[in-house]
Structure prediction request, 438 residues.
Amino acid sequence: MKRSQWGSRLGFILASAGSAVGLGAIWKFPYMAGAQGGAAFILVYLAIAFTLGLGLMAAEMALGRAGRGGIVETFRRLGGRAWALGGLLAVIAGFLILSFYSVVGGWTLAYLVATVAGTSLTQDPGSLGARFESFVADGARVVTYHAAFMALTVLVVGAGVQKGIERLSKWLMPTLFVLMLVLIARALTLPGASAGVEYLFRPDWSSFSTSTLLEATGFVFFSLSLGMGAMITYGSYLDGRAPLASSATWVVFLAVGTALLGGLMVLPAVFAFGMDPAAGPGLSFITMPAVFAQMPAGELFATLFFLSLTVAALTSSVSLLEVVAAAVAEALGIGHRAAAWMSAAAIFAAGIPCALSFGAMRSYTVFGLTAFDLFDAISSKLLLPLGGMLVAVLAGWVAWSRVAAQLAPSGAAWLPAARLVIAVIAPLSVLVILLHGL
Ligand code: PHE
Prediction:
């Protein structure tokens, strides 16, 4: 079978940025920055994203284009038989992440529907909190929205790399950007917004600790979609001529930029209305609706906000499914579309316990964690860093000459620095996170 390819380099960059920009940037980043003391966390995140993150991003794209296969096949081709196991690990990570990611994607979809229907806003965060809690505990509704979100994802992935993923990203990424700018313009013109801006950009180093460093590193992996083969799989659809190093730089730049925009969209409004920036995961679903309820034309801005969240989540979930589907298609020798539907069905099923983790299955725990928290913890604390370590060793040591040839076909002055990051700094820092996480 002829291997799929991106239609253009821009399509590849937007699809990769679409994978990176997701719930991480808009849902997680504002509350993490809020909880970790604002600017200090952000500066650390920026520094790690443009060193470790950029190095691994380039390494993944290069491995993908050199291997030209699904993640398991690519690892086997470039590293030898035993490396196929590493690829398998990445597939499992993608599977687990999408199982709970799709549940949160379903929440955003449900809030979008409720906002359009005009039923999501009231001024009182207490009742909004109660409403959020009763919604996430309502098994039938959350499973239905989880199914709807998975269905959207598989429709895009099933349509193929160029007609599905690339086309979606080319429409949705610019749309997302415009939506966010509108919301930021609104947020920044609220009286009292400047306290939020200050919080984002004036570092308070007294709140800095090793945990800031670890949290920021873990978030670099999650927010740049590193360590589970997303960029390897996307890179495998790239033709031989497109320059890689600059593409990787663009994707990191867009992803980090969007996270900052996510912060600018949420935190100034939170400060302007005197809410708590450290409210945690409820910030998007409880605090923001309270903020919108107090704004003129709040319904409109709330709709735009939940639309942005859904759009961002969808361009990421398609990359998660694509990694699994491409590997399954190759392993079973079946077509891409069939593999996408099979994988999606299995992921939907695995997501059901995650969807029920806040209601019916709240008390079914392993190590004290519900299915939702367990899947999140295993993938973000264990599998992504482990995957990042394998990518770094494969790219930096085992297959360096092929990676270097992909990154700079006629050599470049920065290659030794890139190798230092990929081969030495990345494995060492990941080791520290892994040990700490355990
Ligand atoms: N980067 C995505 C986000 O920030 C999540 C993701 C992680 C997607 C790993 C693919 C792979 O929402």
DSSP finds 18 helices and no strands in the chain. The radius of gyration is 21 Å.
